[in-house]
């Protein structure tokens, strides 16, 4: 039996050196353990940052299975304000937004220079209300023909969340609540926490307290908040999709595949990679996230049936430790099976 609790606690303790607080969840063989270090617990709410993108993409898959949208539907059919987002006559589609192949820039028009000149500016997205965001599209140019190459875009993911919410007749909060949280039984995954008192104080890289981020109309790119306990539930659904209420949507989210190189690709939201044979050759699906005061990593190995979630209320990456823990768990389970 894999020592999930010990592995999670060792990772949490290691990461806590230089971070305000860390929560680590480890899953294997249908079991899960959550461990914390610092002034946080399994029920502490964290900003998830770009981990929100896998929820947005799963909402896309859910709406496709409901017949409300199509993967290759042009964005402009849901957001007429995006009618100019095309190149060589090729329009941006919903699939491309989820796979970062739309050609859109990383940030909305006018945000890049201020971000470069003042990287520590609090809450850089706060003023991007829907009219402001959609107004920037008139001045937005695509860097490539849609569908031709990968170009990570917060703008694209945010527009996807906005478009899906509009088609579903709600806002992004309502979209995630109705299509993801309610079916899976997530109690604390939302733009606005049910109990704001559970939201951790964020810290910058120097451990100084910083204000939280509000992604406004770009919430689909990184505006969700949540707990390790909810991420355990979310990972269980990913590891055994045939047993859950979103089985069809989860299967669909894994079907489209845009290759980045022979060893890595992107599905709808999830990044995929095949580790080198010297590392066990395991398949990993993952996504990370960061805001001004938080960092996150969520990943799983569908073949080995293991998953990992790492959350911290400090803006220092946890990707390396999260990925290493995922690989160690997968290796341990595989070795156990061989015996």
TrEMBL record:
The keyword Secreted does not apply. Coiled coil: none annotated. GO terms for cellular component: outer membrane-bounded periplasmic space. One of its GO terms (molecular function) is beta-lactamase activity. The keyword Hydrolase applies. Keywords: Antibiotic resistance, Hydrolase. It catalyses: a beta-lactam + H2O = a substituted beta-amino acid. GO terms for biological process: antibiotic catabolic process; response to antibiotic. Its EC number is 3.5.2.6. SUPFAM superfamilies: beta-lactamase/transpeptidase-like. It is an enzyme of class 3 (hydrolase). Signal peptide: none annotated. Residues 10-324 form the Beta-lactamase-related domain. Belongs to the class-C beta-lactamase family. PANTHER family: D-ALANYL-D-ALANINE CARBOXYPEPTIDASE, D-ALANYL-D-ALANINE-CARBOXYPEPTIDASE/ENDOPEPTIDASE AMPH. This is Beta-lactamase. It comes from Kitasatospora gansuensis.
């Amino acid at each position: 039996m894999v020592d999930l609790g010990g592995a999670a606690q060792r990772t949490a303790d290691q990461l806590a050196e230089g971070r305000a607080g860390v929560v680590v969840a480890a899953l294997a063989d249908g079991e899960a353990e959550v461990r914390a270090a610092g002034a946080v617990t399994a029920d502490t709410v964290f900003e998830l940052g770009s981990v929100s993108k896998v929820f947005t993409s799963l909402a896309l898959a859910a709406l496709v299975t409901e017949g409300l949208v199509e993967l290759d539907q042009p964005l402009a059919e849901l957001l007429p304000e995006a009618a100019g987002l095309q190149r060589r006559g090729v329009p941006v589609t919903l699939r491309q937004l989820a796979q970062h192949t739309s050609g859109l820039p990383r940030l909305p028009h006018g945000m890049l220079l201020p971000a470069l000149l003042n990287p520590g500016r609090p809450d850089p997205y706060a003023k991007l209300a829907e009219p402001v965001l959609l107004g920037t599209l008139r001045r937005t140019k695509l860097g490539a023909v849609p569908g031709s190459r990968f170009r990570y875009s917060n703008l694209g993911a945010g527009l996807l969340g906005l478009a899906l919410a509009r088609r579903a007749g709600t806002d992004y909060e309502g979209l995630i609540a109705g299509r993801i949280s309610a079916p899976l039984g997530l109690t604390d995954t939302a733009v606005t926490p049910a109990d704001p008192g559970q939201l951790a104080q964020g810290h910058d890289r120097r451990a100084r307290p910083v204000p939280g981020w509000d992604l406004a109309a770009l919430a689909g790119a990184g505006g969700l908040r949540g707990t390790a306990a909810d991420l355990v539930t979310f990972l269980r659904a990913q590891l055994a999709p045939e047993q859950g209420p979103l089985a069809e949507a989860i299967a669909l989210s894994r079907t489209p595949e845009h290759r980045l190189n022979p060893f890595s690709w992107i599905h709808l939201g999830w990044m995929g990679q095949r580790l080198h044979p010297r590392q066990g050759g395991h398949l990993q699906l993952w996504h990370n996230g960061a805001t001004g005061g938080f960092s996150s990593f969520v990943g799983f190995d569908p073949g080995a049936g293991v998953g990992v979630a790492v959350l911290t209320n400090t803006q220092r990456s946890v990707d390396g430790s999260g990925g290493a823990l995922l690989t160690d768990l997968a290796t341990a389970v595989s070795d156990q099976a061989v015996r």
